[in-house]
């Protein structure tokens, strides 16, 4: 059993330096090329179960993989980026000017009214965890999602519901691929943020 967790390609929001959250942005020209290269790199890896965030930048990235697979990606809002409410669409500088206290927290977990709470994030991590654990031993799965949500999911894998007590150490670049698996009910993290397909 192997599960590939994939961040979407560069979006127009990324290109413009906008904090996206769950706001919907298309891939940039560079992002479409990244998705093409990603799909080519996974062509010899048959995917049995395929899922994607329902946001455009993730679905377009998944489409780059679909060209080389029999399976079509099933979209789900459960795999969206963290919802950032009033911060979405702003640059980091604008956010820090409007909400100075965010400098002392993080943009993903600012605690501002109208943003996704830690409890809500935990529920989504649980859903992804149960999906991943349901993958059969002989199957391969791929999930296209977002950098913030995926890095928090890795924290959840390590600490469960106590993930919010950890410092978030992970970084996942556009079309960065991470691989995990379970054997005898033991988690293995094979690698995080591999993007050799872009070189």
From TrEMBL:
<dbReference type="InterPro" id="IPR051695">
    <property type="entry name" value="Phosphoglycerate_Mutase"/>
</dbReference>
<keyword id="KW-0378">Hydrolase</keyword>
<feature type="active site" description="Tele-phosphohistidine intermediate">
    <location>
        <position position="8"/>
    </location>
</feature>
<dbReference type="InterPro" id="IPR001345">
    <property type="entry name" value="PG/BPGM_mutase_AS"/>
</dbReference>
<dbReference type="Pfam" id="PF00300">
    <property type="entry name" value="His_Phos_1"/>
</dbReference>
<dbReference type="GO" id="GO:0043456">
    <property type="term" value="P:regulation of pentose-phosphate shunt"/>
</dbReference>
<dbReference type="GO" id="GO:0005829">
    <property type="term" value="C:cytosol"/>
</dbReference>
<dbReference type="GO" id="GO:0045820">
    <property type="term" value="P:negative regulation of glycolytic process"/>
</dbReference>
<dbReference type="InterPro" id="IPR003094">
    <property type="entry name" value="6Pfruct_kin"/>
</dbReference>
<protein>
    <submittedName>
        <fullName>Uncharacterized phosphatase</fullName>
    </submittedName>
</protein>
<feature type="active site" description="Proton donor/acceptor">
    <location>
        <position position="81"/>
    </location>
</feature>
<dbReference type="GO" id="GO:0005524">
    <property type="term" value="F:ATP binding"/>
</dbReference>
<dbReference type="InterPro" id="IPR013078">
    <property type="entry name" value="His_Pase_superF_clade-1"/>
</dbReference>
<feature type="binding site">
    <location>
        <position position="57"/>
    </location>
    <ligand>
        <name>substrate</name>
    </ligand>
</feature>
<dbReference type="GO" id="GO:0004331">
    <property type="term" value="F:fructose-2,6-bisphosphate 2-phosphatase activity"/>
</dbReference>
<dbReference type="GO" id="GO:0006003">
    <property type="term" value="P:fructose 2,6-bisphosphate metabolic process"/>
</dbReference>
<feature type="binding site">
    <location>
        <begin position="7"/>
        <end position="14"/>
    </location>
    <ligand>
        <name>substrate</name>
    </ligand>
</feature>
<dbReference type="InterPro" id="IPR029033">
    <property type="entry name" value="His_PPase_superfam"/>
</dbReference>
């Amino acid at each position: 059993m192997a599960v590939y967790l994939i961040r979407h390609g560069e979006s127009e929001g990324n290109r413009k330096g906008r904090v996206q959250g769950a706001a919907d942005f298309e891939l940039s020209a560079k992002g479409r090329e990244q998705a093409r290269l990603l799909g080519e790199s996974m062509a010899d890896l048959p995917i049995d179960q395929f899922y994607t965030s329902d946001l455009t930048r993730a679905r377009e990235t998944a489409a780059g993989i679909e060209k080389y697979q029999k399976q079509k990606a099933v979209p789900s809002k459960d795999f969206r980026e963290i919802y950032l409410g009033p911060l979405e669409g702003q640059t980091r500088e604008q956010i820090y000017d409007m909400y100075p206290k965010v400098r002392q927290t993080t943009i993903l977990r600012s605690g501002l009214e109208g943003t996704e709470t830690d409890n809500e994030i935990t529920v989504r991590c649980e859903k992804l965890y149960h999906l991943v654990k349901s993958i059969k031993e002989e199957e391969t799965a791929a999930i296209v999602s977002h950098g913030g949500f995926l890095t928090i999911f890795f924290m959840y894998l390590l600490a469960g519901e106590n993930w919010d007590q950890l410092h978030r150490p992970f970084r996942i670049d556009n079309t960065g691929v991470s691989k995990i698996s379970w054997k005898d009910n033991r988690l293995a993290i094979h690698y995080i943020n591999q993007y050799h397909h872009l070189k």
